[in-house]
Amino acid sequence: MAKKFKDYYNKKCAELLSEKISDFCPDFDADGFVAVVSRGIVGKEFLARQDVFVEAFEQFLPGPYTRNVKIFMRILGEKLKTTEGMFIHGWWLWPVGRYVEKHGCEDYDLSMNFIYELTQRFTGEFAIRPFLKKFPQETLRWMFVWSKDENVHVRRLASEGVRISLPWAKKSLVFIEHFSLARKILDWLRNDSEKFVQKSVANNLNDLYKIDSRKAQMIVDGWQREGVSLQTAWIIKHGQRSFRKK
Asked: Is the whole model's pTM more than 0.90, yes or no?
């Protein structure tokens, strides 16, 4: 039987994180951290396991939040070299992203800069959502800047982060509530050369069609008036897949 994704977040993951943290935080109680995580994850499902890791970070990291994030920044490692591998190589960073998701609004600028770095090794699509909820306009403007970044993972985050529906995340209506700012991100990315980004834009559009087809069609109509590239045509086709089935 294949290993369930939740089962990767186990004692070995706690040991890996504790080793990395101990390199930059000599007073970190690695054994205590591993013991608390190992006990806490028993019988827990995926997100509950992430929260066990977060609670252990809260207990064993020296704090405050700003210091802890600076420690996390130092353990991130090398950036992903291709569009593949964020879950293969960066899977162990999910608890770190969950910690920022829970506490990041305590320091907006530090957290946004951390998410920018995190998404180049794993993904920041979950960590960004509380910022979109609490600081929607400021965060959407920041993400529009990211949509122009040279790093493909950052550009993908600009789209993926504003999606209405994501696995393992609560539904977000920031795209509906701040439509003009959010659509600017898709407008910019619709001609992106990377399929990795195109898929995210198409999925974003598909989500929007399910909730507010009028707004989704407004975006498509605007693109068609301006002229449709091969990239945009692909995005429209895949972004309308659920709508066409109705």
From this structure: yes
